[in-house]
Model the fold of this input.
Amino acid sequence: MTKLFYGLIFILFISLAQAQDCPILPTPVVYTTQTGSLNFSNNLAVDLTNLDQNLKAQLIALADTYHQLKIESGQDKSLIIFKKLENVKQDSYSINVNESIIISYSSDRSCYYAFHSLMQMIEKINANEFSISKSFVKDYPSYQWRGLHLDVARHFFSVEEVKQFIDQMAIYKFNVFHWHLTDDQGWRIEIKKYPKLTSIGAWRDSTVENHFTTAPRTYKKERYGGFYTQLEIKAIVAYAQERYITVVPEIEMPGHARAALAAYPMYSCTGIQQEVPGLWGIFDDIFCAKEESIVFLQDILSEVIPLFPGEFIHVGGDEAPKTRWHDCEKCQAIMKEQKLKDEHELQSYFIQRMDKYLLSNGKKLIGWDEILEGGLSPNAAVMSWRGFDGGIEAANQEHQVVMSPGSHCYFDHYQGKGSEEPLAIGGFTPLEKVYEFQPIPRGLDSFKASYILGGQANLWTEYIPDFNQLMYMTYPRAIALSQALWCEDLPKYELFEKTLMNKHLDLLTANKINYSPTFLKPNFSFTRTITGIDFKVKSKSNEEQFEFKDRSDSSLNVNFKGSYDLPINRTRGTKKLTYSVNSFTTGIQKNIAITNNPCLGVPVVYLTKPSNQYNNGDLTLVDGQFGARPWKGNEWIGFDTSVVVIEIDLTKKQRIDSLQVSFLKDENSWIHLPCTIEFQDLKTKKGKGIGAAPNFYDERQVLYIGKKVQKFTITIKTLDQIPQGKPGAGSHPWLFIDEISIKNKL
Ligand code: ACM
Ligand code: ZN
Done:
């Protein structure tokens, strides 16, 4: 779909904009307007004489890139007056627009922020005439760590692309760029003492195609890679610094080390030479915990440290399987000598060695929340990614925390439910969800909360092969995140969306950013009614014109504006329904298939609680819809227990011919089919079951019932462990269900 079509929608919104709507994102603490406006031409007289050299250059460049405004310095009558304030809140600024524009600021950084805000307040009347409402802005950030992460290992991004990523961050007042420089599939930073890290470790011979869980796997057999020289790194760090952004490099250890070990296999436990993998996932071969490997990594850090002037160095620490350490004589000898009770404590020992090394070199260590396992190193900060719990635990231990939970901050997740979304790793993190992110979880006391530095989103790039796709996944979600990290008093989501549509999508377009239009598409939602479900189509604009068609019944064909509700009553038999929704305004068409059946919308009780991560409510199982593949988190209910019991109430006694339970089989993601399914009529307590394997090859399992029932339970048992030879062998498998339905003749 072209941007032109979306442009039509924005025009609809512009007409709805209120004069007092604040055009700045992230939304400032105070924004008020008075009547009247200040008008000026494209040649701005501004007295920049007392400003820092870099700041001056940045402001001149911003005026040009936002509006092609030319700043003429050193004029007698200055349109913009800068006032540096002492003893005010860190990074605070104010803007007073009246007969002139007065910018008061506490630091060069906050003057830079003020100027971005000012540029966003300006309206262009024509090429030579500009206007700004008489107004007052007072502003400062809520959190001191407002970050975006970029994985350049899975896919590589050029120096110019990284700079563009940083430019875009600066617009939304992000101040930390977390640069994930090393991983299994590529080592991307020149280390002079170990040249093979880049001559060998920066290149792979193939890359897996499609989703890595697709069977059979196929590979693109093409050499792929790249790295940054230390000179290029310095240039990027300086570029970020000029935009008041700190770069935090990540050198992964002890896991995600296959690229380094391809170059220097002697630092693994087995010493066996292996290639740089072209497959995504978690690998057993990690750095050995022996002294030589620790010295190797400290040597690397000794070259990394001088390149990055910031306070923190990230050492990863996530997803390090302990199988090699368990079988390694050297690792076991260290555990004995150091009196460590298990391999988690060995990881803690490993991280402590890095913590001490970094501290003695004037740096602080930060790592993913796995560094809590086996004991948190004394000075370490924690980046919480597996939910909020790791961050809460670290804050309770009075360690600094950056919150980056998968639920809100993983921008490699899908942002829409439609089948037209480009391939992503999985999950579902729409714009609204990002907007709900709160780095400080409820219930954390205010002293412990002071350890939460802020938050960041992560751009893992397994499924992000190029810069356009990177922008698609990052924007506009990063703008929602900037709100969550900056605003003291978050405006309502609808207001944020309006500002985004009125002003900021144009800004993204002007900067040639391939943002995702997904949030503009009509939303399909389903709610339970007494007799079935209500299917609601809701557009972003009340003015948007749609056609709604029932493709299985030509008598239903309606045109509507804004929103449309279709109640669907459950049938006694099974009937396939197909609807299409066609927007005349944008040209977007969406189809939806619903299998109507006696279970549609009936009450469901989870007697076993689903995993919080994969629980989208109890309607998901009886909404008549099957989950799409590759699976997206929102369409499935996931369980991590051995037994799952679900109660269904058909609301009246009726004959069931057969019952179908639909599962997901994705063994690469540790999601397995169950072993047995049992049905039990809750009135007669009589049951019926099927299983065990080898009957279980099909995702859709059917139980023949052949009697009248109202309330019943389904009891599903899983394998105790994932079998040997399969990914995750020995761990407990996941169970995923998308739908429970009844097959009856009509
Ligand atoms: C992570 O996503 N493995 C930190
Ligand atoms: Zn070892």
About this structure: The pocket of acetamide (ligand 1) is lined by residues 318-319, 368, 385 (CB under 6 Å). The chain has a mean pLDDT of 92.
